[in-house]
Amino acid sequence: MKDLTLVNLNMLYIRHYDRIERELHLPLGPLYLTTALEKAGLSVDFRDYQLYEGEDPFQPDSILEFMREPAGIVGVSVMTNLLPFTLMALRGFKERHPDRTIVLGGVGPKSIERKIMERFPWINVVAAGEGEISAPRLVQALKGKGDLKDVPGIWYRRNGQILSNPRPPRIKDLDAIPFPAFHQVDLKKYAGYGILTSRGCPYECTFCSVAPIWDRVSYSRSAGNIIEEMRLVHEKAGADLFLFQDEFFVSSKKRVMDFCAALKRSGLPVQWKTFGRVDLTDEETMEAMADAGCIEIRYGIESGSAAILERTKKGFKPEEAVAVVSRAVRIFPRVDAFFVWGYPFETMEDFRQSLFQMISFRAMGSRVLPSLLCFLPQTAIYEEYKGRDGFVFCADLMPEYMITGHEICRGARMDVGEPHRPIFDFIRANLDLFPGFLHYKPDQNVLPKLKILQEFGFYAAAEAPGGQTESCGAHSPRISLPSGSEPAPVEIIRLADR
Fold first, then answer.
1. How far apart are CA 83 and CA 49, in angstroms?
2. What is the predicted pLDDT for the residue at 478?
3. What pairing do the DSSP bridges indicate for beta strands 241-244 and 194-195?
4. pLDDT at 460 over 90
5. Residue 214: CB partners within 8 Å, gap ≥ 6?
6. What is the pLDDT of residues 18-37, one digit of tens each?
7. Angstrom distance (rounded) from CA 277 to CA 300
8. From CA 42, how far away is CA 317, in angstroms rounded?
């Protein structure tokens, strides 16, 4: 038997009223973790739930069947949107396998680790921090070859108490981390090939849930190390398009220029997409990126209101965003502009300024992707507002980042069928754990703004069959390549065909 069964429960699964969309993305985080475990001499039974082929992955029997015959230790990686489903599924798993030790990891438990341990006794350990350091030591301790008190970054129980250990120090030399365990998966089954060029972001945006995970400190990989991984995946899977998934690839002009020059020298026949910051990409940088194969840049604009940008500590002004996006649309085949709306302090005048900028960018040729503000536990904005009256859970309207796959999307509105109603009952019973599903004063703050967005073509009231609205900044947008290129596949399942 293997030392550990490691399950990836991070997945993109969107259920529209006439179809299901699934984008199969290479699960980089769990595969990095697998490599670290194998380097330590441990054997890993890796399973990616994205690849589950049954009719409905969100039925209890589906996940139990997928996790049959597990190792004695079972690790599960999950993001925030599927944390409620995962906790419920693991309760059923524990009932069937009471002798297994369940370790919960990934970004989903961030900032609520102790509450999870207090409330859900079937979770044995919650792990946080960079798993390359702690995971091998944790598995060895659970196998009786060490003590849990010496494993950094975990929450666990001992003598009826919940204990926690300090997180491990950050890994500064990212080039020293071995590549993900690509041998554990069939690379050709995936449609999206991501690359992590850095870990962490130093900026203090108050709505951001990512930077706090890394303590707002960033470390980067060298150009050569990134290109070596791209070459490996290109040779093994034929991948010729990569998404740099981290927020801080464009951390400095020199870093970007050095990477572009190195990629050009390598002769690797690939294209790539990346996120950028308005205040860190000038025209020379953008031209070098496009010349080196960058076909898409994504900017987090977040608001067209100077007051909102200042309040959220975004670090630039609306006019800077206009100048950069207007240049970018002349250089790149695609420019995505992400906006956040529904801030609790966003007045209607702030919102109209943001809407005007969204419409202007759309007229320029940029794709505009608005997202309703998501109150995740680790964000500064939630820390400021938690405990106040006004938070409401609406199962028929939720932030894009929290779409779970249980609901049926009809534009901005959602239906919940009877088979999936228990998951939302579970959320209602534990709202303090899942604030990302909540809205702040929706009647005053969300619904009036949504109505205006719909009037201007965002969040269509109901999608036409097979159509797609520009309304979701949470998920990786469908790949759009220059004329003559083929997009990577997105699996679309028509409900009428099932």
1. 14
2. 42
3. parallel
4. no
5. 170, 199, 200, 201
6. 888 888 999 999 999 999 99
7. 7
8. 51
First to last CA, the chain: 36
Strand partners, 243: 194, 273
Q: How far is CA 75 from the centre of its chain?
A: 19
Q: Which amino acid is at 163?
A: L
Give me the sheet containing 413-415, strands edge to edge: 413-415, 408-410, 12-16, 19-23, 491-494
The structure tokens listed for 180 are 């993900």
Q: Which of 37, 38, 34 is closest to 48 using CA atoms?
A: 34
Other C-beta atoms lying within 10 Å of the C-beta of residue 456: 13
User: Which residue bears the tokens 């950069």?
Assistant: 324
Neighbouring C-beta atoms of residue 327, cutoff 10 Å:
16
Distance CA 46, CA 27 (A): 11
Per-residue model confidence as pLDDT tens digits over 316-372: 999 999 999 999 999 999 999 999 999 999 999 999 999 999 999 999 999 999 999
φ/ψ of residue 166, rounded to 5: -55, 145
Angle between helix 348-364 and helix 318-331 axes, rounded to 10 deg:
20
If DSSP codes are grouped into helix, strand and coil, which group holds residue 302?
A: strand
Q: With 0-12 CB in 10 A as exposed, 13-18 as middle and 19+ as buried, what is 176?
A: exposed
Please state, in angstroms and as integers, the Cα–Cα distance from residue 324 to each residue in 94, 212, 280, 353, following that order.
Answer: 52, 27, 10, 18
Give the helix ranges, DSSP H, for 168-222.
none
pLDDT digits (tens, 9 = 90+) for 198-213: 999 999 999 999 999 8
- C-alpha 42/C-alpha 19 separation (Å) is 41
Partnered with residue 46 across adjacent β-strands are 6
Would you call 457 exposed, middle or buried from its count of C-beta atoms within 10 A (0-12, 13-18, 19+)?
A: middle
Short-list 48, 45, 5, CA closest to 24: 48
Whole-number mean pLDDT of the chain?
91
What's residue 55's pLDDT? 85
Pair of tokens at residue 51: 């690849």
How far apart (Å, rounded) are the C-alpha atoms in residues 25 and 239?
12
pLDDT at position 393 is 94
Distance CA 244, CA 196 (A): 6
Question: How far is the C-alpha of 234 from the C-alpha of 324, rounded, in Å?
Answer: 32
Percentage of the chain with pLDDT > 90? 85
User: At residue 454, what is the residue type?
Assistant: Q
Structure tokens at 172: 């500064």
Please tell me the predicted confidence (pLDDT) of residue 19.
87
Q: Which helix (H) or strand (E) holds 295?
A: strand 294-302
Report how far apart, in Å, the C-alpha atoms of 498 and of each of 23, 65, 299, 463 are: 18, 20, 38, 20
pTM passes above 0.85: yes
For residue 182, pLDDT over 50 is answered with yes
